[in-house]
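TODO from last week: model ABC transporter ATP-binding protein.
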Amino acid sequence: MTPTVSASGLSLRFGGTVALDDVSVRLRDGVTGLLGPNGAGKTTLLRVLATALPADRGAFTVLGHDPSTTAGRLDVRRTLGYLPQTPGFHHDFSAFEFVDYVAILKEMTNRTARHQEVRRVLEAVDLSDVRSKRIKKLSGGMRQRVALAAALVGDPGFLVLDEPTVGLDPEQRMRFRELIAQAGEGRTVLLSTHQTEDVAMLCHRVIVMTGGRVRFDGTPAELTARAAGRVWSSTERDPGARAGWRTGTGSFRNVGDPPEGADLVEPTLEDGYLLTLDGEPAEVAA
Ligand SMILES: Nc1ncnc2c1ncn2[C@@H]1O[C@H](COP(=O)(O)OP(=O)(O)OP(=O)(O)O)[C@@H](O)[C@H]1O
């Protein structure tokens, strides 16, 4: 199957900071998680793929469209839904007015068809009941759903979500996960997040970045397997552990290189992620 997004050798610097360093990825249908510490280059990669920022080097296509030409860039934008890290709401707009405004920007000129589409996406994110409320009166979780509805306008084949669950309470996050999972059915979704749980529960694939580079690209099970035999329980904090903490039951959970005869426990995706980051710089100065 041809990938929806095919990127090779993407590199970008901001002055002395290397934000992307030779990034190559191929994305297919379903939800791919993008994990990495602050400053790893996640938002930069998303902005480049969303054609909001040109890369210094490298190339990519989205559904066969090449954004290096003006016409190709327009084609990519027509097939794209983008939920940025800080959505630029007009807070005095109602949810309906805001999503309608985004639909106008997406070139939907037929008013009847456009309003039908706006109602469809607001229904999809379960906001039909509050569509006439001003955005400033909505909760944080509802605002994120308005932003998701705006990204879903026009049924894009490629959906880019930049930390959409940040600041949400557990119930809202769960609700948002459901919506992202639905959005990933028959569509390619790239989800940047700091929540390893989001990745474990939602994603068929995970990419880990640090210092502008891809350090891991595989399934969540493969990332978890990186910590196999490297997580153990002990009564005291093990001085040889890379990370160790007392759990609610009073015993210590250690991650790293276990001593002989250690009481090994089942690793999580977060353990695999932490061990992948181990020793890697979060940001790289050129
Ligand atoms: N517009 C900019 N001007 C200068 N430097 C920038 C700019 N945008 C990003 N950077 C730098 O590029 C690097 C990558 O930043 P980026 O925002 O892509 O990381 P991130 O992984 O998304 O981090 P976070 O998880 O904090 O959002 C960082 O060192 C950041 O300071």
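Done. Confidence is low (pLDDT under 50) at residues 281-286.
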